[in-house]
Design goal:
Largest sheet: none
Number of helices: 2
Distance between the termini: 59 Å
Order of helices and strands: HH
Structural class: mainly alpha
Radius of gyration: 27 Å
Shape: elongated
Length: 100
Amino acid sequence: MTIGPIGTGFNFVPLQPSLPARPTTNEGTGFGDRIRTAVDQVNTSQQQASQSAKAWEMGMENDLAAVMVDQQVASLGFQLTLNVRNKALGAYRDIMNMPL
């Protein structure tokens, strides 16, 4: 039994490296815009939670579960925002402390 060279009997086509797709225009949202939108959404959820809690306290809202869900959504959004901020600050500090 003989073993032939690699590729015998197969039609291998070499792969060409492809460049990543780039947007053709600069009209996409930037990182700052996305952060601003996320912070605005967290702010909106906190205001909604505050309003629903106030409505519960005044007797205008009867659904305690909805009030609690609004408060949990606001709390989770704030915790996520705080963790993203802490990670970004940690990365900034790591970059600033790198030796040149």
